[in-house]
Every structure is written in structure tokens, then in C-alpha cells.
Design brief:
Elements: E1 7-11, H1 20-34, E2 40-44, H2 50-54, H3 65-69, E3 75-79, E4 85-87, H4 106-122, E5 125-127, H5 136-139, E6 142-146
Parallel strand pairs: 1-6, 2-4, 2-6, 3-5
Antiparallel strand pairs: 3-4
Length: 152
């Protein structure tokens, strides 16, 4: 089945503990439950990595979004038991701004999303599923991003 990216949804709030992670988990799991033919990807940008834990993606020092954004690896995509695909987070995301051009100003924080989109577009998937995934924009119908409690 051909997949066509329909939406990228980033769940953002400056405050922690308001349900960002639970919202991403519920939306992604609900869509897959309603239509098993859709491919849904979740990306964990929160350094707490709770989304990764909820989807059962083990903590891995190398295969995570931090290393992909720093151009040290491809975008690692894992398939979870419930059919959702996940890019695991990293506690190192706490300091991602140090590895991006500029500093932690609002303008620079917004660049991290530009870096993320560029990373997703330019890097091939580091396919951990064995399904021949190539690029997240070509291989998924929905992408949900769990953001940390800030604009970065």
C-alpha cells in the first residue's frame, strides 16, 4: 500500500504535566486502531523520553532522535507492538541547542524544528523494522511529535 503524508502534528505547551505525551500516544494509537493500513510515526523530542517508554522503545545511546538531528546517524524507526512506529528520544535532547547554530533564543529554538524537518527529509530511515523504510515523508501517513515543555 502506498503511503502519503497527510499531517504532521506537534503537541506543544510551555508547561510540563499538561498531557502532551498522553495526547500523542492517544492520537497515534487511536488512528492505527481505527485503520490498520495507516502508518503512524511518533517522534519523542522530550528529554524525559516518556513517549518512548510508553511505546516500549528501549533506551539506546546511538539510535535516537538526538543523534539523527546531530547528523550522527539516520532517523531510527522502530515498530511497536500496537502497530505504531516510533523514533525514540534521548535525555541528550535537553542540550540540543548547543549543537545547533546560534543559542537558546526563541528564534534559535524555532530553528530546532527546522533542523528536525530537514533531518527527517534529508536522512534516510535507519530502518529497525526490516520493512524497507526509506524516508519518513514517503513511508508514513501521520507523524505526531511529542515536544518538551518549552518552545525548543
Amino acid at each position: 500500500m502506498k503511503h502519503e503524508l497527510q499531517e504532521i502534528v506537534a503537541v506543544v505547551n510551555n508547561k510540563g504535566g499538561v498531557g502532551k505525551t498522553a495526547t500523542v500516544q492517544s492520537l497515534a494509537s487511536g488512528i492505527v486502531r481505527l485503520n490498520h493500513n495507516l502508518r503512524v510515526l511518533v517522534i519523542d523530542l522530550d528529554p524525559q523520553c516518556n513517549l518512548s517508554s510508553l511505546f516500549g522503545v528501549r533506551d539506546n545511546e546511538y539510535d535516537n532522535i538526538y543523534n539523527a538531528m546531530c547528523k550522527q546517524s539516520g532517523v531510527p524507526v522502530y515498530k511497536c507492538k500496537n502497530g505504531v512506529y516510533a523514533v525514540p528520544g534521548s535525555a541528550q535532547m535537553e542540550n540540543i541547542e548547543q549543537h545547533l547554530p546560534g543559542g537558546p533564543s526563541l528564534r534559535e529554538q524555532m530553528k530546532s524544528y527546522t533542523v528536525l524537518l530537514g533531518c527527517l527529509q534529508d536522512n534516510d530511515c535507519h530502518d529497525m523494522t526490516g520493512e524497507g523504510l526509506k524516508n519518513v515523508f514517503d513511508d508514513f501517513d501521520y507523524i505526531f511529535i511529542d515536544c518538551p515543555p518549552a518552545l525548543s
